[in-house]
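cron nightly-structures :: item 1 of 1
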Amino acid sequence: MPQPSALPPFEHRYVTLPDVRLHVAELPAGPRPMVLLHGIGMDWRVWQAMARRFAPAFHLYAVDLRGHGQSDKPERGYSIAHYAADIEDLIDSLGLTDAVVVGSSLGGVIGGAVEIPPDVVSRRILVDPPLTGGPLRDKDMFRDILVLKHGRPPALADYLARRNPEAGRFLAEAMAEMWRESADGVLTEPLSDADHYFDIAPALRQVESPTLLMRAEPDKGGALSAADAERALRLLPAGSSVVFIPGSGHAVHATNPVEFASQVYRFTGADSTTAGAERSA
């Protein structure tokens, strides 16, 4: 069985779009482009561990969403429509075709809201996105983080560790660091539109590329319910499907990376036989 080979370092670039400048970490390993979108409060680094599983089958573009990581942090403009427009402009600026968009949590909602032709984005993988039909379910958590991210650093890490007991202290501290770097608007804008923030049904009806909805374990923080997934699936095109990953937490790529990678390869039809890291993990 092939052994993992050392990956080249990510190449970092800044892409200036009409409304914002985004930071992109690029790994030009394989032929097919894959755009990776992180969850709320996080940044591109949440995908680093997956890179060895997706190389050399994919050319990776791990994006810092506006307000996150090293991307610009405007005071306003954190609706799903703003995020989706950024990704549309980014994909156009990069000149990508036959791309796979993979989004986790908020990134999954954005991946579903992106309006782009199927020859440009041929597959979408939405990882445990909170497709609630509109309502924001974690209002109290958002309010807590908004306060704690400006307080003493250990307090936010302690809070995240309590909410994610299986994650471990190291991950809780890394998450706290990412949250502190994010713009306050990332939280205040969803809170200001808490009843409608995740209403992307009109966008899902316009999706033309087959889409995989990936569900996590509800008892481990899964955000996409079976009912919400089935409702979304009825809006998506032929070839779309829902898969449930037993035992996985909300960040499926972090809690069950082997199965996550297997599902991605299966759905995209990519050649996993060249991905020695994924097979030998």
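cron nightly-structures :: done
The two ends are 10 Å apart (CA to CA).
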